[in-house]
Amino acid sequence: MPFAPPVQGSPWLDPQDRSRLRARKREAVILAAARAFRDRGYHHTSLDEIAAGLGITKPTIYALFDGKEDLLFECFLAGVEPLRAAFREVETRGASGRERLLSVAHRYAVAITGEFGWVMVRVEGEDLSPAMSARIKSLKSEIDQGLRSLIRKGIADGSIAPCDPKMTAFALAGALNWIAFWHRSESSPAAGALDPKTLAARLLQVFESGLEPR
Prior knowledge:
The chain is an all-alpha fold.
């Protein structure tokens, strides 16, 4: 009789394998939830529907997340984390403020066109608990302050024309966030069948010329 591989929960399963398995499950649920929230809306999507789409049970989701609101936050975090990483990365470069700002903005645009873009933009309008709203606002403020900081650095080093950092950050983020309202997929007529990176590059060309010092 052939040896059967260890099953989930088996004492023979290596702890690292259990950790990796749990991480993969979380990633699958987060991605499925993000797609469901985008397609049907947060309040019109149930955990039962998400579970059914994955071929699992709702208790399995509750074993990984505290509830639907927690799952929504994890979708938001999955979209925002690459931006936070981008800010950290550009701080180690010897580039100008404008170059660093555009590098972050490019990552921002790619994130918005990705699977978590809808959640990143619409999450604050979903009537969340005060505690969850505060967590989300804090992360959004972090991104906003990061943009303003890079704009101020660009003004200081002469790579960005003198401007109001707050207003400029709002204008840039507003244009990038709006992508989530009209971009749906690479086959979307509004997107011109562009992949996310190309779409991001073309959109940011508008800002590049406007940010050049005169």
